[in-house]
Amino acid sequence: MSAAASEAHGTRLMLELFVMFGGAKLLAELFTRLRQPGVVGEILAGVLIGPQVLRLVAPSETSQVLAELGVIFLLFNVGLETKPASIFKVGPTALLVAVLGVALPLAGGYALMRAWGSSGIEALFTGTALVATSVGITARVLGDLGLLDALAARIILGAAVIDDILGLLVLAAVSSAAQGHVDLAGIAFTQMVRKGAPAGYGGFTSNVDMKTGAPAFGTPEYMKAVIAGGQLARRYGFPYRTSNTNAANTVDAQAAYESVFSLWGVVEGGGNFVMHSAGWTEGGLTASFEKFILDVDLLQMVAEFLRPLDVSEDALALDAIRDVGPGGHFFGTAHTLARYENAFYSPLISDWRNNETWVEAGKPTAFERANRIYKETLAHYERPPLDPAVEEELDAFVARRKAEGGVPTDF
Question: What is the domain class of 3-180 according to CATH?
Fold first, then answer.
């Protein structure tokens, strides 16, 4: 970012902070004088100065970080003023209130949506959404009213904490059980916006390393999930989106066999579109040029494998078999000479030389061959034509987004 752009970004940031803090403080003071919780005024200030009304401040990475810090300090301050012993005394009562606070909204929302004709999964998600509370808002309101030490406040605060924990567990369970239905809900929404819009079905799921919690890809469980997803896609009548995944940190044996297993799932699941088909490493956190070349080779092999077998009279070469006869070879036959250049798939990476020849060539590895191929490919790259007006618009967009800043990186 240039010095001028950096200065402009800093000025805009300070102005937005002034508007946010000034507006929040002003309305909080107004509501306090009206003998209402100041937090209500602060929320209203966000609504007014945000993009929906006055458009003075737009959500950004900075505002998100400040909001998270504010919640942390708020809860920390509440913790300083709260006596753990007093919370423990109302533990059973708070637990009962929390359980009822989860069960009743969940059941009520589900029943209401079902009565209105919604599907079971839509009704379940609505009920789950009604379960959510906000410990931060609850604590702030009680603090503004000076009631943190009251018995009822201790029960409410304890119940709010337990309620949020139970709500997250319920949401996780409902989301995991309904992934396919969520995909269908999204497809249905696209048809509401634009009837007849092309749509596809795809799920992304895998297991994790139970020792560390790290995601795993290209596993037997991943393949089973991909195959099951393909069955659902065919049941619904949609094309199926899959992926070529692996969790390897470099282009090694792990990267190769996990990608092969992923593509095996693609084939067995009947995938129509392979997203992240080439270059994926480290569970999708990084990409590799060498892995891209390896994946291109694998994808071409899969495409060749799926090509229907040619059993025509010319392909079977019965005449050549009769001409050669027992004990002969086919290297010099007209049939072989006419087809040898493209009779079989010629891999990009595989090295079929014998060991002696391979050693004499310097023992090149698959990684080294992939490295050489990608560099040669980039060296011979020819840029496709692009409308100058479109290019100018894209360059302006990139420059503007860079000037606005983005998510901090570690590189």
Answer: mainly alpha
